[in-house]
Amino acid sequence: MRRIIFYLFYDKEGIVDDYVPYKLKALREHAETIFVVSNSKLTAEGRTALDEVADVVWVRDNVGFDVGAFDAAMTRFGSERLSEYDELVLMNYTFFGPVYPFSEVFDRMGEVSVDFWGLSSHGPLEPGPGEDPSRALGRHLQTNWIAVRRPMFTSLEWTDYWASVRSIRSYQESIQRFEATFTQHFADRGFSWAAAWRDEDYPTENASFESAALLLADRFPILKRRIFFHESAYVESRAVLGRRILEALEGTGYPADLVWRNVVRAGEPRHLYTNFSLLEILDEVDSGWRPEPPARIAVLAHMFYDDMTPEVMSYLDHIPVPYDLYVTTTTKAKRTAILEALERFHINHVEVRIVADNRGRDTSAMLLASKDVFDAGRYDLICRVHSKKSPQDSYNSADLFKH
Fold first, then answer.
1. C or N: which end of the chain has fewer Cβ atoms within 10 Å?
2. pLDDT tens digit sequence for 259-317
């Protein structure tokens, strides 16, 4: 089968994280042509990474979102050249993979006689999403992966469809006029479809998001990125546990570091903290166990607010083994006050350093004024803390941030 893949990419910084070439390299054996259309400018490194795994890399403005990208890419490639292929696949950058070999799904769906197919379907929703909730959302293929066969993509209905959706101007409009309607639009015109993994077989309408661990157990080849950095209130309300999904990923052979490298850059820390279930309740009882030989521990404390020294030390006092303390502050007067406050604490070794100026605050104090503490072999563990008051914020906000 002659197959062409149109792959949409977007990153506001133009960075191509490693999960993208990893995925495209795995798709190479299943596609005669891979056409990457980027709706954002690319860094030089990103461009090189894509050039190594794609036949065409085309950068355009982010006009029309995914719909505009696919429409423009197919137009640029040319309908006459396109008609020489047996199957085209529209897919995007919103998922990790292959968790399991792509060959499994291509082989299985190659035996299914339909006009178009996708990896997963979304169940019907009533009311529907967006500005018009009265309009129910029917069962449909999720548009991160849709494969279309020649009878459909060479039809007049195909041409008319793309002409009708070119004016999309927002993400929400893309959901309502593309993802939510694509399947039914072509089904109403007599084209048959199927999902490799059907929502009917899982306990949630949006199985690829809300039942990801179950899908992985059934050898679903991809994992949606948004699970890890979507609005945490939504994720939490549906009890989607990122940690559990990562545990399911561990036995598949997919490199988990590809997930971490991307999401820590793409997601907000508050969402990552909740979605990855990073909170752990640690036992407050000291068991008395100590490693042998004892770990060499340093604490770096930036104390701009010297009057917070006793409060900070109340936390550091929980360290159950000897440690060296390096304090950075901004004036001689603060240094004197800090040394006086530290006299009642039993610390292995204490240094209080004065930074040249407070530009860069606690970060420059750590990376510049304390860089010698990071010398190889000097310490096994380093704990970094700093005083924080945020007087520019309201009391509650500042106190919450400090804690």
1. C
2. 999 999 988 888 888 888 887 777 777 778 788 888 999 999 999 999 999 999 999 99
Beta-ladder partners of 116: 148, 193
Beta bridge partners of 59: 38
Element containing residue 151 per DSSP (H, E): helix 150-153
Q: 65 phi and psi, to 5 degrees?
A: 55, -145
The DSSP line for 338-392 is HHHHHTTS--SEEEEEE-S--TTHHHHIIIIITGGGG-TTS-SEEEEEE----TT
Residue partners of 16: CB distance under 8 A and separation at least 6? 9, 42, 43, 45, 46, 47, 49, 50
CA distance 106 to 247: 26
**Are the beta carbons of 365 and 292 closer than 8 angstroms?**
no
- Please name the helix (run of DSSP H) or strand (run of DSSP E) that holds residue 58, with its range, or none: strand 56-59
pLDDT surpassing 60 at residue 199 = yes
How far is it, in rounded angstroms, from Cα 282 to Cα 193?
A: 51
249 φ/ψ angles, rounded to the nearest 5 degrees: -70, -25
Going by the DSSP 8-state scheme, the letter that residue 398 receives in this structure is H
pTM of the complete model: 0.71
